[in-house]
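Review this:
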Amino acid sequence: MQHTLPTKSIKERALHALLFELIGVLLFAPLLAWLLGYSLGKMGAMTVMISTVAMLWNMLFNALFDRLRRRLGFALSLKARIAHALGFEGGLILVVVPLAAWWLSIGWLEAFLLDVGLLLLFLPYTLGFNWLYDHARERIIQRQLQAAPNPTRPL
């Protein structure tokens, strides 16, 4: 029998977003610095700025996505997860392009191409991270439910 998982609290959403961004910065800042020829400090600072914006967007977007999911009642299928990842990353374009253009002193087209590159890096990461997080969350909640005392069960 499958239990309905509880809604994520603000605290859990913050943890989810923080883990997502921290792991993303640690994975991609050194790679981007090496690929693009910028110092790790400059690229690290840019990824932290983008990460901060993305973390706030992550919390808002996931809350809206979860609300839509509850309202429409769809499962987190691969198709839904792909739509989730595309929607999340697509929303970041609006902020990341101007931020990258300003921080790296590059043109809007270069910043857009950089953002497309980031999108290509982060799409599979977003999909994989959220899949792993959701499965880990479900297992943790199931263990908590099994360990909780059942008032209707005889001693």
